Predict the structure.
Amino acid sequence: MAAFAVGLIAVTVTASIFVSRLVAANVSDTVVKDPSTVRLPAPPITPRRPTAAEVAAMHTLLMATASTPGLAIDRGLATRIVAAVWPVREQAIDTADIASLSTFESGAALEGDTSLYGTRHCGCPIPAARSVEWTYVFVPKQATFPASFLAEVTMASDGGAFAGVALLVFSRASALTPWTVTLATGYSDNSIGPPIVYVGPVPSGDFNAALPTSPVDLTALPGDLASYYEHWATTGTAPLNADFAPGYFTSYKGGDVYVHGETDGIGGIHHTVYSADPTADGEWSFAGESFELKPQNGWILSCGTVRYESVSTAAVNGPLLNQPPDTSTWGPTLPPGRYSQITQWGLHESCFAVSPTGAPTLVLGNDGGATRSTGVLVSVES
């Protein structure tokens, strides 16, 4: 898969993560129970390509009415929607089928999944859909639209030793519109880190429990993460008294951005501004319980989007910034040629595990990447 020059913490949909041992030390990390004793398996999904009939059935479910009278969504319908969407989405991402993705994704999820990082443009053999091991749905009781729910999908790795987790937010604006995936991110375990931090739903009858009170301003989390990344990019360090725990998507990625100058080996002078607008991009929060961390109860799983604008300028007396004929360096929205300056816009989708004790917040995932590029063209030769 080709990579943009200024990926800025870019990861693919199958991104890797380890929640570092330092995170574990800071968040009171002892395993409180065997997760297998509390997880309920979803119906198995065979890793294969979806048929036309399955795609049609998925679209029918996205317009379906919950079986529970007077409610926008219930756990049964949510579980069926996730099971139907999963193989179709996997196939569409692996084949860069943007037309199909746009029929059941919207917002940040569609932007992230159709970026060059999100879809496979390498001409590689098409892999089967990743096999689902467990599905958890966070379904608050909602009588009217707009409505939303979150799905946490756990899976075995593709032949390796690491498990993976996908976090998908589904939203529906009205009874006349379908459910769509509006935010999608994920992470996977690593042998050098502690187990994946599973934050599951809190049962309250057939629905997820009400959101607990928290000293953390949940709507501010995407903006706080934007400020955190910008501090790393500017200074090479985390902010003092950072609200986020060190880990793969915080200190590791922040250091990586600073060390590489946000250039990916291309050269030039680079400046990046990070931002967040939860009003436009959405922010979703759900009551959670941790299977690994103490305390077990009182957690919140919140999800939102960070955006960035990155300006790359050729150094004085240095080489121009090159976009090759295959547009692999700066993405398909920038024509081939040599440029004195290139601006990229992109986004990262993340979820946050918010502790009930006030401990630093864990950042889980940052899928997405550069979505648009423009530049000052000097020469069409590349």
About this structure: The radius of gyration is 21 Å. The chain has a mean pLDDT of 81.
